[in-house]
Amino acid sequence: MPEASCDIGLIGLAVMGQNLVLNMNDHGFKVAVFNRTVSKVDDFIADEAKGTAVVGAHSVAELAALLKRPRRIMLMVKAGASVDETIATLLPYLEAGDIVIDGGNSLFTDSTRRARDLAGKGILFVGTGVSGGEEGARRGPSIMPGGNPAAWPHVKEIFQSIAAKVDDGTPCCDWVGEDGAGHYVKMVHNGIEYGDMQLICEAYDLLHRGLGLGADELHAVFTDWNKGELDSYLIEISSHIFASKDEDGTPLVDKILDTAGQKGTGKWTVISALDLGQPVTLIGESVFSRCLSALKDERVAASGVLKGPAEKTFSGDRTAFIESVRRALYCSKIISYAQGYMLLRATAKENGWNLNMGGIALMWRGGCIIRSRFLSKIKDAFETDPKLTNLLLDGFFSGVLNQYQEAWRQAVVSAIELGIPTPAFSTALAFYDGYRAGRLPANLLQAQRDYFGAHTYERVDKPRGEFFHTNWTGHGGRVSSTTYNV
Ligand code: NBP
Predict the structure, then answer these.
(1) What are residue 101's DSSP bridge partners?
(2) Model pTM?
């Protein structure tokens, strides 16, 4: 019988699992590891983990026996059925109070189901988002744990030790909320990541095709942008990408095929936004932009058939154009985060989760792909007003938008004139104009719905909640349809 001396067990020795184990070991935690393909355990112990305190187990039974009580077991296996299968193999070796942590990119509804199922068996489940890829896992990821609150005191020390830290030493990890809240927040993080990446690509397209900037000039512009308001990991890596050359000395970025891949978390965010009736338009456009990019052959064929504007390059003040693109990017980014937070608010209400909005911005400030200077402003906004309805109404953000909106419009106008697609810039601006509109044309829409389907409408001169039906044609009856909202 092995000695129960390990602080935590980890199952799943692929790239994320291995790096998290080494990170935990660096912070003084004794980790026991197991992997479905058992030979990988021995390979890991003999190679990457050589000279560390990591202990290899050759079965889940051995892993369970190696752990101090209550047992803490983290899964870093492929999301989906693999998580359920792994939990099922573990269960016979667990006892009440033990903690199972799923650190993969699981769908939040799966985590909610697992948290509830396992609670019925006395096992505490944690579903946690882990962001930052391989490097983050090794040196300090952003960690977003949710699930059974009783588990938090048992995992807090390990998670906060291995997480990224912001300048003042605060860890990018705190308890997010109940059920699948941790994975929900990670999902929204990934959706926002889709948005940030799409916005940067649109800025690149405008400057490259619209202004004719080459990779070296783009490197200079992005390096400059990274010193100011746009300071972020994604702007930084983009500037590095523009500087990278292929073997023949030409920019590598120009050699890369323009078809984007995706793994589904952006899509899940948009599906959830649709389910909750939240206008998360920028992430939606970002997902669809990837879909459009994937239609490479169709696009190439259409490029020979469908005409664009005669003028394809910008001929005005180049410095002003670059600045208007920068401002458009910043304003659109503000809209994207405002929409992401609208979604978080809606899901918290729907699920009864007590989400810590400012804390979430703090968790994203370091370690993860969307880390940026800007996130501290979101944290400040929720610290100033924890009940803030919408980020756009915070003084800092409304100030930026009011100051930059003209340049933002100019960038979108130029894009339209040049025939360069900027779906994320444009939808962000449309959302901005829609959100600040005291009256939208939905009055006509309600009239149409009442006209063809007797769906009824409310009136501006009557109290809300009172519904009216008009017999528009004179032929219809007096019966109206049931009112409902999506
Ligand atoms: P993968 O997502 O590639 O998963 C590979 C691991 O899952 C291996 O250990 C494999 O074991 C195990 N596994 C599979 Br596949 N099916 C299994 C099953 N039915 N039962 C038990 N184990 C099974 O690894 P990863 O890229 O390290 O990611 C791990 C998790 O972290 C995923 O959910 C991923 O989405 C998430 N994530 C990844 C990143 C990233 O940058 N890669 C970032 C953030 C989060 P085997 O060796 O026996 O095949």
Answers:
(1) 74, 126
(2) 0.94
